[in-house]
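Anyone up for a design puzzle?
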């Protein structure tokens, strides 16, 4: 299950950045609202670094009114394209997995 989750959480992070930029803890909180996507700082920050290295997100530090500066992440055009491609492929992939799961139930 962890491999499945790991492969999907990247796209959930990109989806969270679709409309607005967010900082790491904010992304963690949003993921944590869905049980299957709960993750830790030890997972999310390396993921964000990789997304940045792969040019799917941009990162910039910004001063915070109530504490230390925060690193905000936002989608790049390549990140938007990757998310659109995943969104287009997901229904077919999901249907294929359900096909085999349902086939197993009829045995």
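Challenge accepted. My sequence:
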């Amino acid at each position: 299950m962890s491999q499945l989750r790991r492969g999907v959480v990247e796209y959930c992070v990109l989806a969270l950045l679709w409309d607005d930029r967010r900082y790491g803890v904010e992304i963690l909180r949003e993921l944590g609202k869905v049980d299957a996507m709960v993750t830790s700082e030890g997972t999310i920050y390396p993921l964000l670094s990789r997304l940045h290295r792969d040019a799917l997100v941009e990162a910039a530090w910004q001063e915070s009114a109530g504490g230390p500066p925060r690193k905000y992440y936002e989608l790049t055009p390549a990140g938007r394209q990757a998310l659109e491609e995943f969104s287009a492929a997901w229904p077919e992939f999901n249907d294929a997995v359900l096909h085999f799961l349902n086939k197993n139930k009829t045995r």
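A detail worth pointing out: The mean pLDDT is 93.
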